[in-house]
Amino acid sequence: MEVCSLNNKSIPFSDLLRNFFAVKPKDVDGVANTSALYYRDKLLRIIMGRFEFVNWPDEWDLDYAMAELFLRGFFTITDTEIGVVPLRCGVAGNNVFNRPNRVIVANHVLGSFDRLIGVDCALVRLQYNYHGIETLLQRYATMLAMCDSSQAVNILNAKVAFVAFAESKAQAETMKKMYDSIACGEPAVFLKGDPTMRDQFMFNNVKQNFVGAELQDLKSRIVDEFLSEIGIRNTNTEKRERLVTYEAESREEETNSGVSHWLETVNTGLEDANRLYSLGLSFRLRDLAPAEKKGGAEDELPKSD
């Protein structure tokens, strides 16, 4: 293993720090990079804005509870010395169905304590497996970040117009002078040189290799797929002219299936909390736009012949 010494003046200290803390591409796998983290945060905000709690008490921290629900998968509602509050918790024990029957709270203000689920606390969970949506966020954030990476490389490569090969330093200087004259806008350039020099320029077909527009369309399709998973209706940005009715209906079913599970599971936990503490809580989809209330793009899809 190579060891770098701080006494080696040929290696600046800033370079040592950069090399030590840098995230190497071979270790990233499309997840632990700035672009993926940006998209993860953006997608999480979209999800948290898609759902809402009804009759949520003003004194309860809504962002805290939403983050616990979607990222960790669950939280508990229980009575404490400061009243009934939602809290981060762990789960323990097993009932007859091999499900947790206790929660364990370790709070820096309220201390540590156990509660029995359905007896002196309610467990509000998002999914059947007690998991959050971290895998979902990473999947789509990674794909979007990879599109960004491909697009950045493609834009960089599009800057290369041509390459010139010179047989000598003098010929290279002649070529540079010719390019400078052309770049300055001179209508004609006159040089004394080898007529075969024109064969030593290689022009790259930049437009042929540019796929920026296709990558942008791909990002839109990835976002559409994500929106379908969280219950936001869309007909995909491909905009096929002959999208028939049954295809639109199939997409609608796909949009609703996974979200229905989230709603049912969360509301089951809230019903326990309502029974124990008379709260009147519920969990539902938020109304997003008038287009979703009174017909949107789906109502205008071309019918099949």
Structure description:
The chain has about 300 residues and is of the alpha+beta class. Helix content is about 45%, strand content about 15%. The protein has a three-stranded antiparallel sheet with strand order 3-2-7. The chain is elongated, with a radius of gyration of 30 Å. Residues about 1-10 and about 290-305 have low confidence and may be disordered.
**Number of alpha- plus pi-helical segments:** 10
Q: Which residue ranges are poorly predicted, with pLDDT under 50 across at least 5 consecutive positions?
A: 1-8, 291-305
Cα-atom Rg, whole angstroms? 30 Å
**Strand/helix succession:** HHHEHEEEEEEHEHEHHHEH
Question: What fraction of residues sit in β-strands?
Answer: 15-25%
First-to-last CA distance: 70 Å
Describe the largest sheet: 3 strands, antiparallel
Mean pLDDT: 79
Structural class computed from helices and strand pairing: alpha+beta
Helix content: 40-55%
Overall morphology: elongated
Main-sheet strand order equals 3-2-7
Q: Count of DSSP E strands?
A: 10
Write a brief structural summary:
With 305 residues, the chain is α+β, with helices and mostly antiparallel strands. The chain contains ten helices and ten strands. 15% of the residues are buried.
